[in-house]
C-alpha cells in the first residue's frame, strides 16, 4: 500500500460533545422519574457519591493481588487474552452496531470523507471482529475503504480471519502488540486516516501506554484522527472489584486474568497531548443504567474522545 497525500488538519473544537450515543440524549431532571426509562445520560454525581467512590477505592488497597500473582499477570498480558479467545471464540462480545452514532466519520460516505480518494482505518485490539465486521458491513459498497485490524492475541486474529465475512481484498488482520514496534503486516507510516481504540489503552499497563501511543501515532497521517472510548475513573466496574483484584493505583485484574485500568480524563488528555495529538472532542460519558424490575441504579463512566495528529 502506498502512502496517501497529506491532509490538512481539521479545526479543533474542544467544547464539542459527541453527536450521539447508544441511548440517545435523555437527561434526568426529576429524580422521582428515574425508573421510567432504562438509561439516562450525563448524570452528574453528588459530592456524597464522589466521596463514597473514593472510599471504596481506598478500601480496595487493603485487599490487593499478592505480588507473585501480579508479577505473573503483568509479565504475560497477551497470554491472558489469548486464552480468553481460545475459550470463548466469537461467543462473548456483541457487535458494536452503535459505532457510527458516536463516530460518524467511520462511515466512508460521511461528509468529512467525501474528498478522500482512499480511506484507511486501523482498529486496535480488534478481538474477533465486533467492530471490524460492523464497519465493513456499513461501508461494504465502497471501493475506497481499507480496514486494518490488529490484536495481540493470536487466537483472536485466527477466529476473525476464519469468519465468512472476512474479505482480504478490503481487510488486513494481523497480530501486533502495540507496545512493541509495528510488524511487517501493519499499515505504512503516515498512511492512516483513523485509528479506533475502544477499551484498548485500559488493557495495557500504564507504564507501557506511552510506547503504544508513540507506535500508533506514527501510522496516522498529519490531520488523521484517533477515536477513543475507554473506562473512566470510578466506573461501576471499578467499584465492584473485591479482594485480589487491585494490582496497583487504578490498575486491576479481572477474574480471567486480563488487565483493566481506569482513567481520569485530565490524565488521559495529557498522555495524548504528549504524543502530538490535539483534542477535538473529549467527554466523560456519565450514564445511569436502571434495572426497573429490581429498582437498581448502576452508574457508568466512560471517556470518549477524538484527537487529531498535529500537522
Automatic annotation (TrEMBL):
A GO cellular component annotated for this chain's UniProt record is: nucleus
Segments forming domain Methyltransferase type: 122-226
Q: What is its main location?
A: cytoplasm
Q: What is this protein called?
A: tRNA N(3)-methylcytidine methyltransferase
Q: Which InterPro entries match?
A: Methyltransf_12, METTL2/6/8-like, SAM-dependent_MTases_sf
Task: State the PANTHER family in the record.
Answer: METHYLTRANSFERASE-RELATED (PTHR22809), TRNA N(3)-METHYLCYTIDINE METHYLTRANSFERASE METTL2 (PTHR22809:SF11)
Gene Ontology biological process terms, A to Z: tRNA methylation
Which gene name does the record give? Answer: metl-2
Q: Where in the cell is it found?
A: Cytoplasm; Nucleus
Q: Lineage from the top down?
A: Eukaryota, Metazoa, Ecdysozoa, Nematoda, Chromadorea
Family classification: Belongs to the methyltransferase superfamily. METL family.
What this protein catalyses is: cytidine(32) in tRNA(Ser) + S-adenosyl-L-methionine = N(3)-methylcytidine(32) in tRNA(Ser) + S-adenosyl-L-homocysteine + H(+)
Q: EC annotation?
A: 2.1.1.-
Please name the source species.
Answer: Caenorhabditis elegans
Amino acid at each position: 500500500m502506498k502512502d496517501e497525500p497529506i491532509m490538512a488538519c481539521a479545526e479543533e473544537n474542544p467544547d464539542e460533545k459527541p453527536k450521539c450515543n447508544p441511548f440517545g440524549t435523555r437527561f434526568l431532571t426529576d429524580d422521582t422519574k428515574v425508573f421510567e426509562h432504562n438509561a439516562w445520560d450525563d448524570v452528574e454525581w453528588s459530592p456524597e457519591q464522589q466521596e463514597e467512590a473514593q472510599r471504596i477505592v481506598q478500601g480496595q488497597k487493603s485487599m490487593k493481588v499478592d505480588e507473585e500473582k501480579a508479577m505473573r499477570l503483568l509479565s504475560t498480558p497477551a497470554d491472558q487474552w489469548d486464552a480468553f479467545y481460545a475459550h470463548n471464540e466469537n461467543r462473548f462480545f456483541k457487535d458494536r452496531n452503535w459505532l457510527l452514532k458516536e463516530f460518524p466519520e467511520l462511515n466512508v460516505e460521511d461528509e468529512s470523507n467525501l474528498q478522500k480518494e482512499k480511506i484507511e482505518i486501523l482498529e486496535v485490539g480488534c478481538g474477533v471482529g465486533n467492530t471490524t465486521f460492523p464497519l465493513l458491513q456499513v461501508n461494504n459498497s465502497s471501493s475506497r475503504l481499507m480496514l486494518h485490524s490488529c490484536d495481540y492475541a493470536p487466537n483472536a486474529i485466527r477466529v476473525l480471519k476464519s469468519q465468512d465475512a472476512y474479505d482480504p481484498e478490503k481487510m488486513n488482520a494481523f497480530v501486533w502488540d502495540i507496545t512493541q514496534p509495528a510488524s511487517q503486516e501493519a499499515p505504512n507510516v503516515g498512511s492512516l486516516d483513523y485509528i479506533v481504540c475502544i477499551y484498548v489503552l485500559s488493557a495495557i499497563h500504564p507504564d507501557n501506554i506511552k510506547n503504544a501511543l508513540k507506535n500508533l501515532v506514527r501510522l496516522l497521517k498529519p490531520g488523521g484522527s484517533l477515536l477513543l472510548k475507554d473506562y473512566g475513573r470510578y466506573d461501576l466496574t471499578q467499584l465492584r472489584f473485591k479482594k485480589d483484584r487491585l494490582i496497583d493505583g487504578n490498575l486491576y485484574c479481572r477474574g480471567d486474568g486480563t488487565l483493566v485500568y481506569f482513567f481520569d480524563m485530565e490524565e488521559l488528555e495529557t498522555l495524548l497531548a504528549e504524543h502530538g495529538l490535539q483534542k477535538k472532542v473529549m467527554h466523560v460519558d456519565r450514564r445511569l443504567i436502571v434495572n426497573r424490575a429490581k429498582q437498581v441504579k448502576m452508574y457508568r463512566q466512560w471517556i470518549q474522545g477524538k484527537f487529531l495528529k498535529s500537522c
